[in-house]
């Protein structure tokens, strides 16, 4: 059971059943709907982190990509802005005004705004990937600096003010659908399916695993390592921006601090699912299970009315146990093959 691909799914179900008698609200329709609504945007971002971890990298900049993309979306889709709040922005009178953002109330605002958000994420991811692949810089350092720079950049553009977005088409992404089946769920499902097919059924997907297992061996074998690394980080940035679309739609605003407290959740959910921090191992399906467990864990900790610090402490311990479990499972698999 420990070596099963579905281990984390079984663990999530067991966790739910054990806590249900102590937290009856856990199974209420409202709470289950809340769990699912929190799951989809986190899953979208975690899918990008999964690909980066498989190549033995890490992307600490995803939260800053989310913040920057969210602000960019607001700059395109805002229909009106208060001059008393935004007149200190360096963009005031150039790209934004009392009439709103670049496209304001235009019918194209939502489509163009979302496209601009996704391009922003992909470009930042590409810059990270190029620095790592071209100059052989450590992924941790590159993405850490990127996180610091773009987090500050998003705050600088708006002077730490949220940009309200009232377009019905944009808000509908996170709120419209059929019961628990929302557009956010559809977006996450499509991205997960595409990611699964890409990693398991394409040549470039095999290259990603090869680079993660042994980069030098992959290069000798003819794998275009630099291109694969850049592609992985572009995809990670794209997923972070797509996550920003879902979160911003839910909040009805472009927030320069979006994702500030999500990095632990993103990496934690991915690692808990079974994606190795050492590279070469990971599946989109595992990430789905990991996100489910992590969202369920956060939900139950909040229902128990624990303090913010206690919740972070528990999450940290769970991630540490997941890393230990990864090492244990790897050793067991090696022993079984031997």
Textual characterization of the structure:
With 338 residues, this protein is an all-alpha fold. The protein has one domain (34-330): ABC transporter involved in vitamin B12 uptake, BtuC (Orthogonal Bundle), CATH 1.10.3470. The protein is built from 14 helices and four strands. It has helices spanning 7-19, 29-54, 62-77, 83-86, 109-135, 139-158, 168-175, 183-201, 203-213, 215-220, 225-251, 263-273, 284-303, 308-337, and strands at residues 163-164, 177-178, 181-182, 253-254. A hairpin with a 2-residue loop joins strand 2 and strand 3 (181-182). The mean pLDDT is 92.
Report the strand count: 4
Gross morphology is globular
In CATH, the topology is named: ABC transporter involved in vitamin B12 uptake, BtuC
CATH architecture: Orthogonal Bundle
Helix content: over 70%
End-to-end C-alpha gap: 19 Å
Number of helices: 14
State the strand order across the main sheet.
1-4
Please, what is the average pLDDT? 92
Listing every helix as H and every strand as E from the N terminus to the C terminus, the arrangement reads HHHHHHEHEEHHHHEHHH
Summarize it.
By secondary structure, the chain is mostly helical.
How is the topology of this model organized?
Elements (H helix, E strand, L loop, with lengths): L6 H13 L9 H26 L7 H16 L5 H4 L22 H27 L3 H20 L4 E2 L3 H8 L1 E2 L2 E2 H19 L1 H11 L1 H6 L4 H27 L1 E2 L8 H11 L10 H20 L4 H30 L1
Antiparallel strand pairs: 1-4, 2-3
Helix pairs in contact: 1-13, 2-8, 2-11, 2-12, 2-13, 3-5, 3-6, 3-11, 5-6, 5-11, 7-11, 8-9, 9-11, 12-13, 12-14
């Amino acid at each position: 059971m420990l070596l099963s691909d579905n281990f984390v799914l079984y663990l999530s179900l067991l966790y739910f059943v054990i806590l249900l008698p102590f937290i009856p609200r856990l199974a209420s329709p409202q709470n289950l709907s809340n769990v699912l609504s929190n799951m989809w945007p986190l899953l979208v971002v975690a899918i990008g982190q999964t690909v980066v971890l498989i190549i033995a990298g890490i992307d600490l900049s995803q939260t800053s990509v989310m913040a920057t993309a969210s602000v960019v979306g607001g700059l395109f889709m805002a229909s009106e802005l208060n001059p008393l709040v935004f007149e200190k922005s360096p963009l005031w009178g150039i790209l934004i005004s009392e009439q709103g953002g670049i496209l304001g109330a235009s019918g194209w605002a939502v489509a163009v705004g979302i496209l601009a958000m996704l391009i922003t994420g992909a470009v930042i991811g590409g810059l990270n990937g190029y620095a790592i692949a071209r100059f052989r810089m450590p992924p941790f350092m590159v993405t850490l600096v990127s996180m610091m720079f773009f987090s500050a950049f998003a705050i600088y553009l708006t002077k730490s003010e949220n940009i309200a977005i009232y377009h019905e088409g944009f808000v509908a992404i996170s709120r419209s659908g059929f019961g628990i089946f929302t557009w956010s769920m559809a977006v996450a499902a499509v991205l997960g399916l595409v990611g699964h097919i890409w990693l398991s059924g394409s040549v470039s997907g095999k290259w990603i695993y090869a680079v993660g297992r042994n980069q030098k061996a992959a290069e000798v074998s003819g794998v275009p390592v630099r291109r694969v690394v850049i592609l992985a980080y572009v995809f990670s940035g794209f997923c972070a921006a797509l996550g920003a679309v879902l979160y911003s739609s839910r909040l009805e605003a472009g927030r320069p601090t979006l994702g500030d407290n999500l990095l632990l959740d993103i990496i934690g959910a991915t690692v808990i699912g079974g994606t190795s921090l050492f590279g070469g191992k990971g599946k989109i399906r595992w990430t789905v299970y990991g996100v489910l467990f992590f969202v369920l864990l956060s939900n139950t900790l909040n229902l128990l009315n624990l303090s913010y610090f206690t919740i972070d402490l528990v999450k940290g311990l769970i991630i540490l146990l997941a890393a230990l479990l990864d090492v244990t499972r790897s050793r067991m698999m090696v022993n079984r093959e031997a």
